[in-house]
């Protein structure tokens, strides 16, 4: 008798069918992977199970009993727990307050904190999840926050644990620790659903896998029965033509640097965001910047392109000091910026595609003459771009808001690469994209490198960095903690340690 | 005792505490509301409605207790409309609050005119009287200010302590804070976001209504059009100044109250300066203090944001 059975679950948001007649069966004591691309409907399905969304139709059975889960509170009482991709922790409260949030412990509402803390410590020791119950959430790093989330579920004695992309924010070592904990939990008889889009992860941790594509289930099997190629094909619906870095490509590492940062420091309110950071980027190379999110990557990118001014230190572009130059001037002399937050920093969502495409050059010929815009030129430019970049859109006048993430990213890339830049700062350029779009971006970056541009590739995805970079720098706490040449035998563990600031 | 500097100081402090009381009460209610994520600019309307209904109830029943009840109901009436608009209909909370202020102003003026017509001598209602607490009220300067006042003021002190305990020492307070900081997390933990916010709105109405009642049932003994004259807005400032902490709200209210008491006293001293200049005094103080407390404040992350569970 399976622990959980979801039958024919449908859910739509407006016209978008997020789940179409999805079936999912989870046995007691198994780790079940829910594999699919971004937007395949994995998270929606789990949010239905956790009571955040209500299904349009379909049924849920726990231990063969039909259940209706209309709120997370009911899910919790059915011993279902979920670790969301964006952690559900209140930043101003302590670890222990967050863990008991919503449950009535002894003494409620005057809960005996000390006893709760002791209980938390006991649970955390049992599973080797080290934690200080009195720490305030906003002071903790993402790795620790995830531990808090998992302990929260254990504290609630959840029998079915749902983890949504749990490794996205972790260093390789942290991932290993997490998997060890998950295996312990499985041995204790608990069931785990792990949402992921990484095939390698599925193979190393899961017992069974259910693959979703475009909101529908395409298959379910024991992990031993399906290979990597088969999973990849099920997930994206076709065979993948992956980007490959030409290692024979003539590096121009002995040429003058296109970008040098000299002792760049940037102060936050109470902390140093960047401290005396020095880095050099040569033309024709991709320099990957590895690091856990929030260690100064975004700020570094913004210092380089001129959105932020460093408190001390210099930014040199082709040997010239550009530290005091504004963004527009820097772009004019050959910098390009692909920001990590597409919607916020990269596009004007409520403006149409053709206008977004000329944002860097709208005040210059041929797009403008004597401060008047030339609609025809803009339109023709947009049509050309749509063909060149294979943008899927109803037309050039479509608002960018209505394009998919991959197509939005293509608009940004097309705009930024238009001036044949010498330096490209690409921050998380494939985050949230499906595999097809990701490969498109990867190939584009490699082509730019082969053309001779210097690229700073900031990514939290180590696989991507290793695939694309010529050299890999590691950032931790606003400092460069390591710089390695990328070759076949590169030491992942070493990078991981440097990401955690240990080595 | 009432001679010289000490006498003036004593009287001034006592007046400050009286001025501070309606601000503190309304501020406590707004603290609950804002901590839960609802920014209710309609505090002025809540106080005005509270003042009106407390007067009506007290006038017709000649009972102060019924007057208090009326004040609370009047406040709750306005705050629950705001609550419904914010929680259920997800409207812009600031606009809703502003609209309610004007609604309360119009409604109370209209009802008052209906009930009493145009009169030159205002109808009066019973008021509460001072009760001196033995021994404590004999302490020089602070004795008369804190321990020789009306029961309203003692109740206010009690409520400050109670609110502190609820907000900072119980799970209820944690639930409210979670709702205002990260409603999605609160929801995921099984806390009802809308329930918590409705309860906070209810408290806001009760406290704001009490604050309004204080004007009619303690300070003045009558009602007139726009009797609150901006006290609700000042109370909003007091909440920010007091950093949404009950004790902080009390301190901030006393500070602003002192500015107001000082202003009244200076007007009667005959400086030959137009009274409007003195009228500005509390507001100047408010602006100055706000200026110096910039950056030290932390607003709840979801303040003013509607929570829609099904939103992607």
Provide a brief overview of the structure:
The complex is a heterodimer of chains A (503) and B (312). Helices cover 33% and strands 25% of the residues of chain A.
Protein described:
- The complex is a heterodimer of chains A (about 500) and B (about 300).
- Chain A has about 500 residues and is of the alpha/beta class.
- Chain A folds into three domains: about 5-235, 3-Layer(aba) Sandwich (Rossmann fold), CATH 3.40.50; about 255-335 and about 420-503, Rossmann fold (3-Layer(aba) Sandwich); about 350-420, no CATH class.
- Chain A is about 35% helix and about 25% strand.
- Chain A has 17 helices and 22 strands.
- Chain A has helices spanning about 40-50, 70-75, 95-100, 115-125, 140-155, 170-185, 200-205, 230-235, 295-305, 325-330, 340-345, 355, 375-390, 405-415, 435-450, 460-470, 490-500; strands at about 5-15, 15-25, 30-35, 55-60, 65, 80-85, 160-165, 190-195, 210-215, 215-220, 260-265, 270-280, 285-290, 310-315, 320, 335-340, 370, 370-375, 425, 455-460, 470-475, 480-485.
- In chain A, the strands form five sheets. Chain A has a six-stranded mixed sheet with strand order 6-7-8-3-9-10, with helices on both faces.
- Chain A is globular.
- By secondary structure, chain B is mainly alpha-helical.
- Chain B has a single domain, classed as Orthogonal Bundle (ABC transporter involved in vitamin B12 uptake, BtuC), CATH 1.10.3470.
- Helix content of chain B is about 70%, strand content about 0%.
- Chain B has a two-stranded antiparallel sheet with strand order 1-2.
- Chain B is globular.
- The termini of chain B are far apart.
- Chains A and B meet through helix 2 of A and helix 7 and helix 8 of B.
Largest sheet of chain A: 6 strands, mixed
Please state the overall shape of chain B, judged from the principal axes of the Cα atoms.
globular
Number of strands of chain B: 2
Uncertain runs of chain B are: none
What share of the residues of chain A lie within helices? 25-40%
**What's the SSE pattern of chain B?**
HHHHEHEHHHHHHHH
Tally the helices of chain B: what do you get?
13
**Major pleated sheet of chain B:** 2 strands, antiparallel
> What is the count of helical runs of chain A?
17
| Assembly state | heterodimer
């Amino acid at each position: 008798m399976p622990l959980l059975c979801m039958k024919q679950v449908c859910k739509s948001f407006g016209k978008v069918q997020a789940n179409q007649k999805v079936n999912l069966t989870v046995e007691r004591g198994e780790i079940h992977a829910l594999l699919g691309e971004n937007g395949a409907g994995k998270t929606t399905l789990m949010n239905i199970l956790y009571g955040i969304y209500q299904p349009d139709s379909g049924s849920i059975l726990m231990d063969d009993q039909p259940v209706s889960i209309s709120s997370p509170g009911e899910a919790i009482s059915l011993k279902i727990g979920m670790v969301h991709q964006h952690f559900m922790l209140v930043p101003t409260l302590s670890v222990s307050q967050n863990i008991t949030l919503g449950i009535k412990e002894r003494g409620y509402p005057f809960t005996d904190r000390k006893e709760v803390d002791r209980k938390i410590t006991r649970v955390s020791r049992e599973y080797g999840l080290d934690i200080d119950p009195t720490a305030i959430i906003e002071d903790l790093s993402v790795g620790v926050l995830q531990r808090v989330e998992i302990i929260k579920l254990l504290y609630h004695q959840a029998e079915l644990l749902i983890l949504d992309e749990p490794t996205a924010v972790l260093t390789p070592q942290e991932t290993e620790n997490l998997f060890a904990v998950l295996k312990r939990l499985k041995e204790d008889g608990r069931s785990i659903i792990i949402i992921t889009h990484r095939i390698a992860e599925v193979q190393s941790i899961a017992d069974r896998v259910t693959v979703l594509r475009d909101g529908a289930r395409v298959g379910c099997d024991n992990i031993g029965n399906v290979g990597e190629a088969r999973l990849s094909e099920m997930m994206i619906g076709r065979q993948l033509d992956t980007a490959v870095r030409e290692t024979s490509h003539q590096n121009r590492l002995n040429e003058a640097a296109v970008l040098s940062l000299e002792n760049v420091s940037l102060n936050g309110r109470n902390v140093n965001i960047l401290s005396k950071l020095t880095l050099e980027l040569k033309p024709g190379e991709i320099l990957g910047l590895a690091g856990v999110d929030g260690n100064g990557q975004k700020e570094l990118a913004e210092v380089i392109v001129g959105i932020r001014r460093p408190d001390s230190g210099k930014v040199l572009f082709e040997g010239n000091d550009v530290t005091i130059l504004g963004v527009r001037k820097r772009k004019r002399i050959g910098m390009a910026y692909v920001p990590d937050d597409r919607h916020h920093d990269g596009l004007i969502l409520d403006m149409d595609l053709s206008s977004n495409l000329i944002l860097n050059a709208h005040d210059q010929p041929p797009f403008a003459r004597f401060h008047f815009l030339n609609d025809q030129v803009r339109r023709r430019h947009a049509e050309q771009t749509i063909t060149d970049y294979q943008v899927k859109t109803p037309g050039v006048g479509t608002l960018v808001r209505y394009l998919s993430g991959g197509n939005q990213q293509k608009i940004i890339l097309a705009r930024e690469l238009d001036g044949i830049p010498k330096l490209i700062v690409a921050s998380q350029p494939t985050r949230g994209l499906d595999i097809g779009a990701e490969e498109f971006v990867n190939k584009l970056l490699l082509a730019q490198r082969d053309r001779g541009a210097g690229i700073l590739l900031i990514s939290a995805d180590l696989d991507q960095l290793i695939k694309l970079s010529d050299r890999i720098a590691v950032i931790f706490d606003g400092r460069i903690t390591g710089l390695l040449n990328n070759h076949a035998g590169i030491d992942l563990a070493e990078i991981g340690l440097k990401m955690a600031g240990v080595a | 005792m009432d001679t010289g500097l000490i006498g003036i100081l004593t009287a001034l402090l006592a007046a400050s505490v009286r001025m501070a009381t309606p601000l503190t009460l309304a501020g406590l209610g707004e603290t609950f509301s804002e901590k839960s994520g609802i920014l209710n600019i309609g505090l002025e309307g809540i106080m005005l409605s509270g003042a009106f209904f407390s007067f009506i109830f007290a006038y017709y029943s000649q009972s102060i207790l019924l007057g208090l009840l009326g004040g609370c109901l009047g406040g709750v009436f306005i705050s629950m409309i705001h609550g419904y608009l914010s929680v259920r209909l997800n409207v812009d909370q600031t606009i809703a609050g502003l609209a309610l202020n004007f609604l309360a102003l119009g409604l109370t003026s209209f009802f008052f005119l209906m009930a009493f017509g145009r009169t030159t001598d205002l109808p009066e209602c019973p008021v509460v009287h001072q009760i001196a607490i033995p021994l404590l009220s004999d302490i020089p300067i602070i004795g008369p200010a804190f321990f020789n006042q009306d029961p309203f003021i003692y109740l206010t002190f009690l409520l400050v302590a109670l609110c502190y305990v609820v907000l900072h020492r119980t799970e209820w307070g944690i639930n409210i804070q979670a709702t205002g900081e990260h409603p999605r997390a609160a929801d995921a933990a099984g806390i009802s976001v809308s329930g918590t916010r409705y309860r906070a709105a209810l408290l806001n109405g009760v406290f704001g209504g009490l604050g309004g009642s204080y004007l009619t049932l303690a300070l003045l003994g009558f009602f007139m059009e726009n009797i609150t004259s901006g006290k609700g807005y000042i109370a909003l400032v007091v909440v920010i100044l007091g950093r949404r902490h009950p004790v902080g709200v009390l301190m901030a209210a006393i500070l602003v109250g002192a500015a107001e008491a000082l202003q009244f006293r200076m007007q009667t001293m005959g400086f030959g300066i137009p009274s409007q200049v003195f009228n500005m005094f509390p507001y100047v103080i408010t602006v100055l203090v706000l200026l110096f407390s910039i950056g030290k404040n932390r607003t709840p992350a979801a303040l003013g944001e509607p929570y829609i569970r099904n939103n992607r």
